[in-house]
Amino acid sequence: MSRRLLLAVLTLAACRAGGGADAQQVTDATIEATLPGRFGTLSNVVGTATGKVLFADTKARRLFVGDFAAGRADSIGVARTDTLKADAPAEQYKFPGSLTLVGPDSVAVVDFAALRVTTWSSAGKALGVLRVPAVLGPAPVVNYDQRGRGYKVDFAAILGGSEPGTAIRPDSIAVVRFPLATGTFDTVAFLQAPEYGDAYVGEQMQQVPRVFGPNDYMGVLPDGAVWVARGRQNRVDWVLADGRRVRGTARAFEKVKVSDADTARVIAQLRERGLPQQVPVQFPFAETKPPFENAIGNPRGEVWLQRSRASDTEPAVYDVWGQDGTWKRAVRCPAGVTVAGFGAGGEVYASRRNDDGSRSVVRLKA
């Protein structure tokens, strides 16, 4: 297996960490509305100023626009195609994934298979292809603000660099910002590098990020404020829109041991993603799980960190942090529900797991 593929599937598996919640006061969120339809695997959900939401079913590889007021969810764009010409219209796509609001009524959709970004209105109309300069390599840019700028993490720094066979282990990974019109970038923040260990696939050994090891997450708010959630310290740092830097206050968290069931599940996921079925494999696992397994920004100036869980069957609990770097509150979702995105006014949208394994898009009162 190639270094890039192995690191990619490990990253996917590591995002499925688990852990427990403390006994501090937690507010329970409730489901106040549900879109019709059931979906395979949901991307993030982006709400617009009109109240409509856009999201992708990454299993079916389709885009959707949802309207809670009208009680409907409609597929948009041309049915996915396995081939896409360089000059294909924006209505066509291959593998729509991450979505970001780049204007009051303009949503950028990253097509990971076509390596391009298209923009869509809240009415579900394709607006065009977003011209994104190839900063730090060809990988798609998934983070944008509403001031015409993109943001990218220099993951090439931990994938071996540009020289074949060269291993690079930097202490930090740069987050760069650049105007889409020019591509001239500057560094706005740094993520801490992951912890590494030895992985064996048969007799082949290579160093990979430790599964369930603490990872930093980053995101961007519409005004250009950048946040970094620190996986080792359990805090949120900010680079505000005016350039001021805020160091967050670390918060204690319960450490939960990585179980045998966790390791077995991750190995099974890795085999599903390409590891040989009949070859013995061994990966480096952390002893305990990190403070959070996911992070998502709210346009209101908040960051929601999903606490790690011992099992996916436990309700998801989110610690909410403000732009002053302090913890504000905790929100517990109903069973089977995880936060998937926010609206322009701070509305909370989530993904609900149904009994048949499908997903529904819901709006929460939180």
Sheet/helix structural class? mainly beta
The Cα radius of gyration reads 20 Å
Low-confidence stretches: 1-23, 161-165
Annotation, overall tally of beta strands: 28
Strands in their spatial order, largest beta sheet: 1-25-24-23-22
- Kindly state the mean pLDDT as a whole number? 89
Give the helix level as a range of percent. under 10%
Q: How is the main sheet built? A: 5 strands, mixed
* Shape annotation: globular
How much of the polypeptide forms β-strand, as a percent range? Answer: 35-45%
The N- and C-terminal alpha carbons lie at a distance of 44 Å
**Oligomer, anyone?**
single chain
- Write down the secondary-structure element order: HEEEEEEEEEEEEEEEEEEEEHEEEEEEEE
* Number of DSSP helical runs: 2
General description of the model:
The protein is 7% helix and 40% strand. With 366 residues, it is mostly beta strands. The strands form seven sheets. The protein has a five-stranded mixed sheet, with no helix packed on it. Strands 2-28-27-26 form a four-stranded antiparallel sheet, with no helix packed on it. A four-stranded antiparallel sheet has the order 3-4-5-6, with no helix packed on it. Strand 15 (196-201) and strand 16 form a beta hairpin. The chain is globular and about 50 Å long.
